[in-house]
Amino acid sequence: MGSKTIKIQYFRSIIGRPEPQKRIVRSLGLRRLNQVVEREDTPAVRGVVAKVPHLLQIVEGDASK
Fold this sequence. Notes:
Elements: E1 5-10, H1 19-27, E2 36-40, H2 43-51, E3 56-59
């Protein structure tokens, strides 16, 4: 059985945002608006997403496919 994952969506542009926020988005592997990536569900990843809640969101849905 695999480890749990979460889906993270990039829904608002980083244009005009401070450099640390841009680095956070890029570090998750997000490049395009509305892109969704799947990452391991750890407190560290959730903390990174919580740093920029105005740019990223955790997508709810059926993750067990």
